[in-house]
Please model this.
Amino acid sequence: MTDIWSPTRVGTIDLKNRLVLAPMTRSRAQYDGTPGPLAAEYYAQRAGLGLLISEGTQPSDDGQGYTMTPGIYNDAHVEGWRKITSAVHAEGSHLFIQLMHVGRTSHPDNTPHHRQALAPSAIAPKDQIFTMTGMQPVPEPREMTAEDIRQTIADFRNAARHAVAAGADGVEIHGANGYLIQQFFAPNANHRADQYGGSIENRARFAIEIAQAIAAEIGPERTGIRLSPGATLGGLDEGADGPALYRYLIAELNRLKLAYVHIMHLGNEQLLSDIRRLWHQALIVNRPGRPLDEVGSDVEIGLADLESYGQHALANPDFAERLKSGAVMNTADRNTFFGGDARGYTDYPSGTAAA
Model:
């Protein structure tokens, strides 16, 4: 029986175990999008996990939604990320940089160019977003033109090239959590009448074209994608045909032979089983709130090849070691999740004695 501690391969990378750091926004980058001075230490601390997936990283000025998030589209960003990848590799792990374009989940005050956000359609979510002057309503975005779509795909491709130049082992396309790619999936956010709206095939087209472009640029073996079927973050509603869209999308992505699909699983067990059947490469499953005594269960029954963890790994830099030894776990401090300094970032203690 396979367990979480057995080595595995993702793309062409050999991993020492099947534990994955889930991507988590920390909002500690510099104002120009260069990763912050403590980022290399933060990721290297968690290198006991077989694969690390970075915080969401914008592929362009248009892609930024939140304050102090990193980018990966210019030389300064590359130099900043190279410090991180070198630190992670020195500790024996691997890093994929997650490419996150937030679409309508943005505010002009949070972007370098202060422009109106881009989205499939000019429909604002009924949400608020943090800015440096406090919480503000998310404003109405601008519907993307055909040229905007072409440019955004090119931006993803450029970011992937920069990520590899920075030493990353690959990139993860963020197609989840209510951001741009998932906005195309959801009929209540996508009212387009062109080839990117309406039918399942059309609503999935943007995601497929981004994956094709990145795979062509850096290789499918360096390309992963994260999806969250049924997620309603950002006010999205994928409708009754949402599961059918994901079955179609997974089958089409499988043709590209990407390194992995990363599923944020929200409870549709039949859909997850179907994804497992349709997807022939590595499958990472993230179950938000999974109890510690259930870690490894999806791998053991063959439903997943790897499992990803967020808050447990955030609060426990030595999460893998503690899990293996049965040591007491630190509790995550929600007050320090976003922004700030070392507190709640690189200062969680390691080495608690076994319970």
